[in-house]
TrEMBL record:
Residues 2-48 form the CsbD-like domain. Residues 1-53 are annotated as: Disordered. It comes from the Bacteria. It comes from Pseudomonas syringae pv. antirrhini. Residues 40-53 have a biased composition (Basic and acidic residues). Gene3D superfamilies: YjbJ (1.10.1470.10). Belongs to the UPF0337 (CsbD) family. InterPro entries: CsbD (IPR008462), YjbJ_sf (IPR036629). This is CsbD-like domain-containing protein. It holds the Pfam family CsbD.
Length: 53
């Protein structure tokens, strides 16, 4: 979640300052955060499934 938030801020600052490099870094960081979140959700789902067995 933190990476997503920081990524969004970087994108906004990059857009406001017309800095395409900062925008790209922000998008990459946002996607990294989304990937981490998805990984955590899968891990939780697997753990819940194992706990039921």
């Amino acid at each position: 979640m933190a990476n997503e938030a920081v990524g969004n801020v970087k994108q906004a600052v990059g857009k406001a300052t017309d800095n395409t490099k900062l925008q790209a870094e922000g998008k990459a960081q946002e996607l990294k955060g989304e990937g981490q979140q998805a990984k955590g959700e899968v891990k939780d789902a697997v753990k819940k499934g194992v706990d039921k067995v």
